[in-house]
Amino acid sequence: MFNFDADRFLKIQKGAVALAAEIDAAAQRYVAEGIDSVFFLGTGGAAILMYPAAALLAQSSRLHVFTDRSAELVLTDHRSLGPRSLVIIPSLSGTTRESIAALDFCRARGARILTLVGHADTPLGQQADRAFVNFAEDDTSSESFYIQGLLIALSLLKHRGEASLHDMAAPALAHLPRALLAAKASFEARAVALARKFRNEPYHIITGAGSAWPQAFYYGMCILEEMQWIRTRPVHASDFFHGTLELVEKGVSVILLKSEDEFRPLCERVEQFARQYTDKLTVIDPAEADLPDMPQAFRPLLSPVILATQLERLSAHLEHLRNHPLTTRRYYKRVAY
């Protein structure tokens, strides 16, 4: 695969999976202590990568689940945040300003703080009640955070007696890093074709639903916009027909990320519409990825992880064809704002 280190990828994703026992023990303790709410915070892309875990908990548990933006939370008096709250803050650098402010704000209200970081010797690594550390870089962090978030949600459900997916998922996750590597390899040829198709495209509508929506949101904002300076319009498939559809015409790029869950019909509705009105529809379906040793019942939870690992291949080829390194920034961490 082009510009790709398979050993590094496997080490990082295996590192995320290896946190399972520690995460499970922490979840057991928090449940025993009587938590009644869970806040998935974070900032920017890292926060978006927690959405699948938050959705799983919201749909399967009686816990009160929130995905407030950190920068907004610290300006409010949130009635559900208190000593029985568990706060989860992901930050690859461990130094994100808004997330540090959220940690301080939540601690002052007595909440338990759990962080997911790439470096232990950082404010978010040192100041949490419990920090889970797994080194990653931008091209490998999405899968790592998705896996860790999923482990947290599954463990909380297990110890609350609200779902039994954990015992099925645990052995399957051991095989996931290599399965993702195979998914990357099988997507490589298509990634090359898509990069050629997108290299000069000035604008994309990018959409999805269910567990695929966070990855559509993330890829549009954090990769195409931040790392490639390409204008995008991330829109949830359920909102597509309440405004965005009026922008669809011949020559307009629509990227649709499908999911494998019960929300797939929302994606199919967009697909049926877009095929009629644009000649630039791209559909990426994680169901087409062959993931041996993954139980079928577990597949819907993996859609965002599969999409993230496939789209990393597209990013690698886009930066090459557009001569625009993914690390190039004009403003982010370069100027005061």
Write the layout of secondary structure elements.
Blueprint: H1 6-17, H2 20-32, E1 37-40, H3 44-48, H4 51-60, E2 64-66, H5 70-73, E3 85-91, H6 97-108, E4 112-117, H7 123-126, E5 130-133, H8 138-159, H9 165-198, E6 203-208, H10 213-225, E7 231-236, E8 253-257, H11 264-277, E9 281-284, H12 299-321
Parallel strand pairs: 1-2, 1-3, 3-4, 4-5, 6-7, 6-8, 8-9
Helix pairs in contact: 1-8, 1-9, 2-8, 4-8, 8-9, 8-12, 9-12, 10-12
Q: Count of helical segments?
A: 12
Q: Approximately what portion of the residues adopt beta-strand conformation?
A: 5-15%
Strand order of the largest sheet: 2-1-3-4-5
Give the C-alpha Rg. Answer: 19 Å
Q: State the secondary-structure class.
A: alpha/beta
Shape: globular
- Separation, N- and C-terminal Cα atoms: 38 Å
Overview of this protein structure:
By secondary structure, this protein is α/β, with parallel strands linked by helices. It contains 12 helices and 9 strands. The strands form 2 sheets. The chain has a 5-stranded parallel β-sheet, sandwiched between helices. α2 packs across α8, α8 runs antiparallel to α9 and α10 runs parallel beside α12. The model has no long low-confidence stretch (mean pLDDT 96).
Brief synopsis:
The protein has 337 residues and is α/β, with parallel strands linked by helices. It has 12 helices and 9 strands. The longest helix has 34 residues.
